[in-house]
Structures are given as C-alpha cells and as structure tokens.
Amino acid sequence: MNEPDQIVTKRQDYFFPSIGHFYQTPPKITNGQMQYLYDHNSNEYTDFFAGVSVMNCGHSNPDIMANTIEQLQQLQHTTTLYLTQMNVDLAEQLASILPGDIRRTFFCVTGSEANEGAMALARMHTKKNGFIALSGGLHGRTHLTLSVTGIPMWRLDDQLVNENIHFVDRPHSLSISTEEAMEQSLQQIETVLQNHGDNISAMILEPIQGNGGIITYPKDYLKKVKALLESYEVLLIVDEVQTGYGRTGKMFAIEHYDIVPDIIVTAKALGNGIPISTFSTTNEIAQSFNKPSASTFGGNPVASATALSVLKYIEKNELVQHAQGLGGYLKEKLQSLSSPFIQEVRGIGLMVGIQTQSVDSIEQSSADITDMVLEKMKQLGFLVGKNGLNRDVIAFQPPLVITKEDIDSMVSSLERVLEEIES
Ligand code: PMP
Which pTM was predicted? Predict the structure, then answer.
C-alpha cells in the first residue's frame, strides 16, 4: 500500500467517520512554501484553496515564521492573568483597521468559539435570546453556532440545535433574479422581526458566504438588512472568519457593502496557520460582557506575535490591493471559459467560485463533475477547493501571494480538464 493510502486507512481506523477529505486518495502533503505545496514524492502543487482561506500570506512565509519562532523561544504562554505586550499591541492594531468605531477585541482560538462568544455578547447586550440566520451560512460546530448554520449537511443532528433561531433565504438563487431573491429575503427578515423582534438579539451572517458556495449579496442588501434590524434593536454580527484580512480585495468584506456591523468575528487568516480568532465590537456593546470570561489560549503570545507580523506583511506587501487586482483578473479569465459545465462564475477578490451544472449528454451530476475537476486538476498540479449546498461549486481561494502566472497556468489547465470531461 502506498503512503497516502496507508494514511487514508489509518484515518478510517482512528478518526471519527465525520472527518472527510477531498479526492479518493488525497496527496500526502509534506512541505509548503508560499503558494506551493509539496507531497511526499516532491510533486509540486499550486495551492488554490489555502487550507480554507487560512494561508493568506503563504505557507511557511519566512518573514512571518521568523517572528513566530523568535516568540516561541522567548515566551510561549501565560494567559491574560499576567501582562504581555503582544496581545495588547494586536488589539490596538486591530482597532485601527476594523470598520467604524469597533475597537474592543476578545481573543479566542477558533472561528466557532469566536462566533459563539459574539452571540453570547449579543444576548447579554440586548437581553434577548433569539437569532436570525441565513440559509447557506456556516458559523461553526458548537451548539449555538451549529444552530445558526444554514447548510443541512453540517448541522450534525437537528436534536442538537437551539430553539428560537429563525432562518431566512439568502438573497441568491439560480432560479429567480437577484432582485427578486433580495426582496424575498428582506421580506422574510421583516416578517420574523414583526413576529419575534422583541425576542431576537442578533442576525448573524457571512458578508460573502464561503462554504455555502461563494455567494455575494446585491450592493444594497446589507444596508437594508441593517436598517431593518436597527428598527427592532437587533444587532448585526458579521462572520468574517473566511473573508477577513484581505481575501476579498478589502481588509474586511463588509467594507464592500458600506455598512458597519455591531460585532465582527475573525479567525483563520489572522494567524496564517497559528490558531487565533477574535470577536470585536464598540465600547458601548463591549460593556455588556461584564462577567469574568477569558479564553485560556486566546491571543497567546505566539499567536499574537504571529498575527502582528501577518498584519504587517499584508500591509507591506499590499496584499489587499493584490487580491483586488488579481481577483478581478481570475474572475474574468474564468468567465471567459466556455464550457457547458459552467453555470455561473461568482465571487469577489481572491474568493471566486464556479457553479457547475450537469448536461444531458453525460450521466454525472454537478457534484460528480466538480469532483472530476478537482481530481484532474490535482493530477496537473493544482489544488482547487469545492463548496456549495450540493458540493458542486469549484472554489478558488488561493494564498494572496499568488501570481498572475500561477493564475494563467491554473486556468489553462482547467480549460483542458473541462474539455476532457466533455469529450
Ligand atoms: N465561520 C465560517 C464562515 C467558516 O468558514 C468557518 C470554518 N470553515 C467557521 C466559522 C468555523 O471556524 P472553525 O473551524 O475555526 O471553528
């Protein structure tokens, strides 16, 4: 048995059956260098998924790693019971880049944990209990975050979820116009607010849905949502776990919509592979989180030192602008592909997806086609992702250090792959 197959077998023996993977046999990755990954046979892959939007600054980025290693050698961990410099510096830095007057940050470790904290904060601040969430959203795997996750396959077991959660349709549909989908969604929010507004603390949403299939919203949608929520004193929590830190061509994706949320949640790319997450809010709202509460590992010295160098690296290398420019380039190139399997190309910045579709002449479903594309692209040296409610969206979310040349070679390989599947 070869090395990857041995690992697959061990996973089957020792992991929970819930832990899946892409590909029949995934590559066994042994090294990473910026936008490239290498397997145990030294085959090179250009990474177009970045560990699900985490490695924005690239794998084992030498500039960032140097600070992580220095910090590891100096001081690993204390908790917030003692004073350290890095986490306060990080909180101050975040205040300078977070939108509007959001300036206080609570550090934790994972996206789920930060969303859970944000929702607890909303409950404490409003003294109300319920939530509104969008279909197609994903917010984590703790009880409360599972409860607001609007993708059936991720909800584990409906017995686990909390009550008083109201789902509304996301403003995107392949069968009606965007305008209609937006009106429908706004109408549903209004109805929920009219009927239950006095017991709803917040609406939680991703500014661009990641796992739900790279879904952006019409320009005015979030403005209208925010106004509706405000009229019922309901907060808006924006989950930027996947979209934060330059991914979409803005530092935070919410900036595309010209609104300031009440609470903003970030994770993944902040630590570029070292676990750290945050929920941040205004002075006023933060005052409601007034019982003792801290995360043991949240914002520990190693994570904070790393995050500080991540922010510095993003700024120094203009990764936000880079994501905007190259993202537009990638999207245009994908849009120019002509294949019967492409139903829609969508997204913004370096967060782009191809909605695939089946065609009459072949038996495969859109999910099968997506899997075939992933497999064939892997064989050609490109790791692309997939997501979507039916797992039929090919996702491109590379490290932001990707180059135009990487995009050119990926797209020409994709063109070849799509033609091969058609023939
Ligand atoms: N929110 C979003 C938008 C996510 O994409 C994810 C994970 N993919 C989470 C929350 C949960 O993050 P974590 O796995 O770090 O708990």
Answer: 0.98
